[in-house]
Amino acid sequence: MEIRNLTRSYDGRRVVDDVSLSILPGQVTCLLGPSGCGKSTTLRIIAGVEMQDSGEIWVDGKLVCDTVFRVPPERRGIGLMFQDFALFPHLSVADNVGFGLKGSREQKRARAEELLRKVDLLRHIDAFPHELSGGEQQRVALARALAPEPAIMLMDEPFSGLDNRLRDGIRDETLRLLKDENTAVLLVTHEPEEAMRMADEIALMRRGRIVQQGAPYNVYTRPADRAAVSFFSDVNVLKARVDGALAETAFGQFLAPGIADHTEVDIVFRPQHVRIDFDRGGSGPLPTPSDGVAARGVVERARFLGQESLVEFRMDFDGGVLKATVPGVFLPKAGKAMWLTVRRDRCFVFPAQAG
Ligand SMILES: Nc1ncnc2c1ncn2[C@@H]1O[C@H](COP(=O)(O)OP(=O)(O)OP(=O)(O)O)[C@@H](O)[C@H]1O
Fold it and tell me: In CATH terms, is domain 233-351 a member of 3.30.360.10?
């Protein structure tokens, strides 16, 4: 499926702004972004329940809709799965799954059996929805959406109604089934973890626009801007000014290629890329090319978060706070002086943003 330059405004405000995307068979593309950025509107336009102001949607080289021509939703070969998926309460599991299918009763039953076996619910084929747990109902909804063999599946926050314990298992199972059926998937979510877990491709959306697109690893390690870094994790930000393609900081110099002299920059890095060293008689580790210069800070607070510990330092050089995470348990006492260094290859330098 190819989406070209979709635009949609409400009351003069563009909520979908020139969105283009390709979605391939057997791949999960995640539309990831904060609440209100236009993800659901994009999905509703693709589903055909909402009209765009401009732009086109193509499937398999055929035009599905532009501003004049429009294939109706039910003839687009698109399956839908939304957060508030509703099974028909008065129909059995088998009839729910077979609902959108053509053919004889036996054929519908056979397809329902095939899919229910795949989601491991064959034993519940004659049960009614209220007899199933939330997670089981979700799997029935997935089987129902996949039953007509849609070439494309649109999923809008499909797992957000489930409790955490169930969610990981159902996500993985859903992924396996979608791959098995070679479906092209567009999944909308506001949770970076979900996108990282599910996606072959992430399209990061902000204020109606796609600001970055790529494999999860690339989007995470080569973010387009400061907001893209902080969307995925906590960040630390150092302020500096460029001089001769270098930005001078208490952690030493950072390369700022392509940024004009005198530009204010943000040097952004994640807490897991801060290294902590103990104070040795008032000094820290010697400078290295990979870690730069050490800067002194005093522990303000340390908390154990389960897999890792988060330590906040009040830094000597500007009185600001920097965060560091350390795997396992590391809970130094407040007031203890330590030295921080930052992995150079994990820092991003961007022209400064306000705030
Ligand atoms: N029918 C409508 N009329 C007017 N404004 C709308 C309509 N539908 C959506 N909007 C507005 O468009 C913006 C984008 O909404 P949309 O639901 O696409 O965002 P989203 O990224 O999916 O957010 P969420 O994750 O919270 O659902 C919001 O500000 C919303 O208030």
Answer: no
